[in-house]
Amino acid sequence: MLAMTGAQWLTAARAAEPQVPVLWDAKERLPKPDLSALPRLRFLTTTDFPPFNFLDGAGRLSGFHVDLA
Q1: Is residue 15 in some structural domain?
Q2: Residue 21 falls within a domain, yes or no?
Q3: Dihedral through CA 57, CA 58, CA 60, CA 62, nearest 10?
Q4: Considering the entire predicted model, what is its pTM?
Q5: What digits encode the pLDDT tens for the residues 17-35?
Q6: Structural domain range at position 52
Q7: In a domain, 37, yes or no
Q8: Is 54 helix (H, G, I), strand (E, B) or coil?
């Protein structure tokens, strides 16, 4: 009797599981868009506000703001 009740409960629990739809494919890769027609966007900054923008050891502009741009 207990085994029958357990089997019925298990069957009911499986039927009650929500079905989640697959809305995207993780393996799908979209082609890169052609960006040649877009105009350039330039950012101006200073080099005296570390850690946001500064010159690194090689003399290149670095920092948080540069990484964001």
Answers
A1: no
A2: no
A3: -30
A4: 0.39
A5: 778 888 888 888 989 999 8
A6: 43-69
A7: no
A8: strand
